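Design a sequence for this backbone.
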């Protein structure tokens, strides 16, 4: 995931949905990999490969972990900032957005703990 979903040079757009996750990676998992995994698992990382993949651009829909910072005073905890393109979600559906962002990602095995801190 790191090579595709960790994009520290990404500049957020006014149309992006921005999320801040508090992440505690499993031992041996670097924060960049953990942040990339959150971005992937909450956007396009769980999509099944089908023939229509040739019709859909991953770069258009994928979440991007664009910044990571350590949590002051907490060992092995980080705030991972993830930008999601608005086009990833069904227009006008808060349920669809929350299902994607806070759905199955909370059971991801690369993480010991995960909490959504902010969403804008």
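Sequence:
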């Amino acid at each position: 995931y790191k090579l595709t979903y960790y994009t520290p040079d990404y500049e957020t757009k006014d149309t992006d949905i921005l999320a801040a996750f508090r992440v505690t990676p499993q031992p041996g998992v670097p924060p960049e990999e953990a942040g990339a995994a959150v971005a992937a698992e909450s956007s396009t990382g769980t999509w099944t490969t089908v023939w229509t993949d040739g019709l859909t651009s991953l770069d258009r829909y994928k979440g991007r972990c664009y910044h990571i910072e350590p949590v002051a005073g907490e060992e092995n905890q980080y705030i991972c900032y993830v930008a999601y393109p608005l086009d990833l979600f069904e227009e006008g559906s808060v349920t669809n957005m929350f299902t994607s962002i806070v759905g199955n990602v909370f059971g991801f095995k690369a993480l010991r703990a995960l909490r959504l801190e902010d969403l804008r």
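The CA atoms of residues 20 and 81 lie 5 Å apart.
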